[in-house]
Write a structure and sequence with these properties.
single chain, mainly alpha
Length: about 160
């Protein structure tokens, strides 16, 4: 497959996202804060390897024989549950906010932007994209936004309105 293939762009962006999440996780671990978030990010990084495998395998041969490369409705539900959990900690959002806040919060906002790019690249694949991969990345971007807000709130970093 050519390095210029849209599929390579898609799983390359997913790989970049997993790397950025590693940066956030390393920051949280070194600071000794938000252990729940660090644990979630590790789980998400593992899921993103599965997303990459699904994208790299348009004929869907891997998922049937490699359990680690599978994603399903339970994985989406887990993301939704985490979104709800963080939303419960936060004041309702009434205006747009600027990315930033604490260091980990800012990295999470950056990760969300990379996630949205990955989602667009996956969407370009159309019917050749594994549908669960697109859904997973879509919900993940919402989680990363909510997670950034929660990490910032826990750190006492104010949200700057636009």
């Amino acid at each position: 497959m050519s390095k210029a293939d849209p599929r390579v762009d898609a799983y390359g962006d997913v790989d970049e996202l997993a790397s950025w999440l590693g940066v956030v996780r390393a920051r949280l671990v070194s600071a000794g804060t938000d252990e729940d978030v660090a644990s979630m990010l590790e789980h998400i990084q593992r899921d993103l390897f599965a997303v990459g495998a699904l994208l790299a395998d348009p004929r869907h041969r891997i998922a049937d024989r490699v359990v680690k490369a599978t994603l399903g409705p339970d994985d989406i539900a887990r993301l939704e549950g985490w979104i709800d959990r963080f939303d419960a900690e936060l004041a309702p959002l009434r205006k747009f906010i600027l990315a930033g806040g604490s260091e980990a919060g800012a990295w999470l906002h950056l990760s969300r932007a990379v996630c949205r790019r990955a989602e667009r690249r996956i969407a370009v694949l159309g019917e050749d994209a594994h549908p669960i991969a697109l859904t997973y990345v879509n919900r993940l971007s919402d989680l990363l936004f909510t997670m950034a807000r929660a990490v910032n709130a826990r750190a006492g970093a104010p949200e700057l309105e636009w």
